[in-house]
Amino acid sequence: MNKPVRAERGATIIDVAARAGVSPMTVSRVINGHEGVRPRTREAVQRAIDALAYTPNVAARSLVTSTELRIGIVYSNPSAAFMSDFLTGVFEEASTHGARLILLKGEAGRPPSREALENLIASGISGALLAPPLGEAQGVLDIVHAAGLPIAAVGAYRVTDALCVRVDDRRAAYEMSRLLLDQGHRRVGFILGNPDQAASAERMAGFYDAVREVGDVDIRVAQGDFSYASGLVAGEQLLDHAKPPTAIFASNDDMAAATVSVAHRRQLDVPRELTVVGFDDTPAAVMLWPPLTTVRQPVHKLAAEALSLLVAGIAQGGTPRQRREIILDHELVLRQSVAPPPSERDRGA
């Protein structure tokens, strides 16, 4: 007699679905005794459960038996300020739909484990909302797609079979860069965001679009990852040059705030000796002196819009069959961190 097949990590609902040739949601319906499953399908699922020695999660089963609309919110963003705005938008929008939110966080900026994602799916969610950068994490997308669940992603580019809600990062970065160049800055630093996010590349492209229009600009680039800590390192690198930038454009507010901190530690006056600008307009932009000039992408509204579209898609019965992008407006918010470049005399040259 053959022994049941069981992987070391334990069989999951995804494993059962793959063996039975059905979706994880169908497996969930069989486990919980829902009607509407054909007898042949029910038998195939039960054979797969027996063969894999699959034991359903009791807590997950109790959730599935409820009639609530459940949305999985999957996130792993290093910016606490960004996530505060994001989650506020999600919670407020969820309350208007009577939706229950189930949060799943990846640690240290990484996606959640496969097991955690599969447990989230097994809990009976109706769809998943992915916060940046997870909307472009192929492993996460593959697992959720395999479950046949609709997906909405904030800040993502070129994602198949998902609703993507974002701003025009390239245009926004171009406009901010033109602001610096029109102020007369010709030594300009740029701090890149997470290299695995398309938004980072788009913001960099917008910066170079503006630089090419002006010409004769001394460019310095440093790599960050959207975290405050990476902004500290990048700010030090840029300001260590023999002829440091007179303006630094950081790809988000956390890294811009870190750059201001580095400037203060070096006893540089912002903005008289160094202009610093950011991107997002999170609370971090106004929790320091001087408050940051920044690009306002409506994080709260992006999250709320994504959740609203996801709920509408669920109500219509399923997964989007093609990519759909919604682009919301951005805005330049002018504060006290910008000034024309100092003269060489003022810089002590």
- Helix count, per DSSP? 12
Structural class assignment: alpha/beta
- Strands, count: 12
Residue share in helix: 40-55%
Which shape, going by the Cα principal axes? elongated
Low-confidence parts lasting 5 or more residues at pLDDT below 50?
1-9, 57-66
Structure notes:
The chain is elongated. Strands 2-1-3-4-5-11 form a 6-stranded parallel sheet, with helices on both faces. A 6-stranded mixed sheet has the order 7-6-8-9-10-12, sandwiched between helices. Helix content is 42%, strand content 17%. Helix 1 (13-20) crosses helix 2, helix 6 packs parallel to helix 7 (138-146) and helix 8 packs parallel to helix 9 (198-214). It is of the alpha/beta class and 349 residues long. 49% of the residues are buried. It contains 12 helices and 12 strands. The longest helix is centred in the N-terminal third of the chain and has 18 residues, at 80-97.
